Structures are given as C-alpha cells and as structure tokens.
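Action item from last meeting closed. Structure (208 res):
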C-alpha cells in the first residue's frame, strides 16, 4: 500500500497507469481516495447503508472493468461520478421507490396536487427516471458533467469551479445552458411525461 505521503503526491493519472499495469495496490489506493465521496453520493439515493455498500462495490467493480476506456479527456473524478450516478439511478428504477427530480428549480416537473396523488405515479416516476438518464447521457460532455456535479452531487458553484478548473461565471453560464438543453430535450422527446411544463424561457432554470 502506498504510504500516506505518497498517496497525496501520486496523481490519478499515475495511479490509473499503475492499475492498468496490473497493480492491485494502486487500485486499492484509487478506491481509498474516492470511496467516501462515492458513498456520500449514493446515500442521496438510498437510505439503507448495506445497499449503499453493495452499490459502492458495484461502482468500483465497473471502474476496474472499464478503466482501460478512460481517455483522460475529463477528470477521473467526473468520470467516476458518472458511473456512480448511473448505478444510483438504475437502483432507483429497479426499486421504483422515489421520484427522480433533476433540475428541480426549473419548474419542469411542476404538477398539481391531484397529479401527485395519481395511482399511476410510481410508473410515471420510473419512466421519468429512465428519460432523465437517457437525456443526460446524450448531452455533450461539458453539460453532462456539470449537471451531474450540481444536480446529483449537490456541489456548490465554487466547488465545481475548483474541481473543473474553470471560472465561477463559466460554471453559471454552462449550468444554465445545460439545464436549458435538458429541459428542451425532455419536452421534445418525452412530452407525455410533462403534462404541465414551464415555458422554455432563457431566464428559466438558472443564472444568466
């Protein structure tokens, strides 16, 4: 195992190279570096600690199997988070236990009380989760990443700017455009899921 000092000095790129070279120790260090963040993200979707542990193991197993496909065109941190989000939303779809609400401050999913009490609500929630996952996956990399970090992980604008090494204003404008693209795609591809949709105003859903 890498010593603590080495753990902080070794970059993700170097650890990944070592893993691809056959080092189990390097993969253990990569897991140790991100396991708390992965577990925290999963806990937003699943309250059961045992299920979160199982999902975390599933995430890192996928990471191990797919690590050779990581092209370093984004930070490993964001690539890992996309795998985690996919695992979490898949879990929600299987369980049909709650309604997935992405871009919750855009008004896209506003409905009346009678709609929320509908006996078809569980089916609608599952359909919406599937639609959300598909649309997010279709978005360009920069928009997909910022939605994942903000809407799923709940990271602050400042933290996102630091993570992605971009200006705060870029975070705001990119998130605004990502939300707008998501909303437009949802209305265009899944109109039946949005009986009451907010107008597609440029001022809706995010800062200018």
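Sequence:
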């Amino acid at each position: 195992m890498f010593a603590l000092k080495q753990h902080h000095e070794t970059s993700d790129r170097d650890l990944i190279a070592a893993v691809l070279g056959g080092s189990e120790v390097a993969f253990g260090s990569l897991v140790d570096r991100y396991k708390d963040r992965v577990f925290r993200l999963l806990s937003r979707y699943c309250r059961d600690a045992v299920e979160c542990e199982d999902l975390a193991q599933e995430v890192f197993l996928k990471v191990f199997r797919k690590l050779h496909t990581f092209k370093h065109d984004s930070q490993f941190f964001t690539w890992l988070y996309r795998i985690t989000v996919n695992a979490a939303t898949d879990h929600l779809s299987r369980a049909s236990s709650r309604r997935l609400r992405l871009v919750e401050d855009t008004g896209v999913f506003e409905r009346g009380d009678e709609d929320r009490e509908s006996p078809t609500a569980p089916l609608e929630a599952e359909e919406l989760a599937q639609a959300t996952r598909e649309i997010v996956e279709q978005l360009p990399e920069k928009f997909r990443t910022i939605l994942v970090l903000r809407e799923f992980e709940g990271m602050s604008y400042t933290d996102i700017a630091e993570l992605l090494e971009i200006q705060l204003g870029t975070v705001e404008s990119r998130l605004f455009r990502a939300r707008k693209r998501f909303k437009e795609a949802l209305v265009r591809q899944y109109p039946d899921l949005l009986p009451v949709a907010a107008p597609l105003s440029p001022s809706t859903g995010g800062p200018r």
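Note appended to the action item: The chain has a mean pLDDT of 75.
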